[in-house]
Amino acid sequence: MNSPRRSRIVEEDLEYISRAPLPWERLSGRTVLVAGAYGFLPAYIVEALLYLNEKNPELGIRVVGLCRRPEKAQRRFAAYRDRRDLVFVFQDVCDHLQYKGPAHFVIHGASWASPRYYGRDPVGVMLPNITGTLNLLRAAQERGSEGFLFMSSAEIYGRADPAYIPTPEDYCGCVDPAELRSCYAEAKRVGETMCVAWHHQHGVPAKIIRIFHTYGPGMALDDGRVFADFVADVVAGRNIRLRSAGTTRRAFCYLADFVVGALLVLLRGDPAVPYNLGNDEAEISVRELAELLVRLFPERHLALEHIPEDRSGYIPTRVERACPDTTRLRSLGWKPRFGLEEGFRRTVQFYLEAEQ
């Protein structure tokens, strides 16, 4: 099987993922249904699965990408045209599932994640995580799926008590259901509870990952999140625009480390048990991140620039610090490989090389 044309950064990431000590043999001859397939996080999982086939054609993994828009799928997976191991089903995950084939593993990553949508389309934010989760859990139940992965979020913790940061999975969170931004967090919480219910009542091996800030090649640079804004500034060669004092702190996980963690939970994790997925070794303040990016690319002659807050439709978080306790995930054998400097350097280089 010939390797498709990919960027150098992506090729190196996929090679790293493929070398992770995971039980890849469990995927041999299996069909993996990935909902939200062209989304930032699910798309890299799709690429990783296809790369595994390239490295070992005998695996014979078949990927079914469920997504809404053919043009977006064609653009995102342009390097994989005419692949026999990748097919698409175009529909909204909230509608009755049209796909009737096997689904040995199901990965549910169909969801608006950008804060830009919390104010513009809160209903559209909620439904894929509730109705969509219902449809996929039923499909997994009917097909006797061997694994189901629900991509939840650290947002479910809300404004965590500082005494519980780094935050363990048994912290129940502090979310105001009457706050508009909670459309995302509460929908994820419902999705998690549905996974637990379907496992206990119907035996669906539903695994849950709570995703903290993740960045890397392919992320939308206009989605409104501050780290994406900063990368967009560097790529455009303009000063990094800081809209606040930059004192909030976040733990940032590089995309390749995320994929290893996600697939590890799918293949080895316990059902109905949430796993934090984020790099607790890479916590930094927003201002420090901006300063780091300036230092990483001195040849672009950038500086920090404070500008007035203006984010139409964007509902900012009031969480001052977010960092996961990853003890549970590390007990499965996960360890992040990419630190902040290497991860953000690779991310920016991906976009710079794409422009050449």
Structure overview:
This protein is an alpha/beta fold and 356 residues long. The chain has one domain (8-218, 253-282, 324-339): Rossmann fold. 39% of the residues lie in helices and 15% in strands. The chain contains 11 helices and 14 strands. It has helices at 8-18, 40-55, 70-76, 116-120, 122-143, 182-202, 226-236, 255-268, 286-296, 327-330, 340-355; strands spanning 31-35, 62-67, 86-90, 105-108, 147-153, 206-211, 214-215, 240-242, 249-251, 253-254, 274-277, 283-285, 304-306, 321-322. The strands form 4 sheets. The chain has a 7-stranded parallel beta sheet with strand order 3-2-1-4-5-6-11, with helices on both faces. The protein has a 3-stranded mixed beta sheet with strand order 12-9-14. It has a two-stranded parallel sheet with strand order 7-10. Helix 2 (40-55) crosses helix 8. The longest helix has 22 residues, at 122-143. It is globular, with a radius of gyration of 19 Å. It starts with 7 loop residues before the first helix and ends with a helix. The mean pLDDT is 95.
